[in-house]
Amino acid sequence: MLEDELRQENVLQNLVAKNSLECVWQRHIADSAQLIGHAERSTRPWMDLGSGAGFPGLVIAALRPEIPVILVESRKRRIDWLERMKSKMQLDNCRIEGARLEQVETFEAGVITARAFAPLDRLLALSARFSTSRTRWVLPKGRSAAQEVAALSKFGRKMFHVEQSLTDNEAGIVVGTGKWSEKS
């Protein structure tokens, strides 16, 4: 259902790159689902930043109905899309935060993920207040993963490492556990 709805909505708003519509399952759905393997089983909230088309947030919410999944998205048309999909997919564990990340009330996230949201250093700075010593960061960064980790402070380079994507041989996923501090 998600795949069909995505194809229809993508005509109205550019949710994903048109060339990726040829391989929605691998490029978006499986790519999102693989992130679960990098997060320890937890009942603490999973936070998806800049959810856009709902990847990985909607997929995570569907596959992990026992945990709350919070999708943060500031663009009105994308928020409407996410709300419709949440309803159609009957994702009672999913909450859409229709606001910029800076405006979202602070809570302790068990997992933080973001796909095509911001460069790693900026992403960490913006979302640091949601992290605790137990927060798992699972950040698909594509081909730039290793470079973005290498550009972090010494603390950041110790906290994060790159895992190979299972769906794209050239892509990496930045993974780490802990509280990020802007002073790090």
UniProtKB/TrEMBL annotation:
GO cellular component: cytosol
GO MF annotations in UniProt: rRNA (guanine-N7-)-methyltransferase activity
Keywords carried by this UniProt record: Cytoplasm, Methyltransferase, rRNA processing, S-adenosyl-L-methionine, Transferase
Location, primary (coarse class): cytoplasm
Enzyme class: transferase
Pfam families for the chain: GidB
EC number: 2.1.1.170
Source species, domain of life: Bacteria
HAMAP family: 16SrRNA_methyltr_G (MF_00074)
Its biological purpose: Specifically methylates the N7 position of guanine in position 527 of 16S rRNA.
Protein's name in the database: Ribosomal RNA small subunit methyltransferase G
The species this protein was found in: Qipengyuania soli
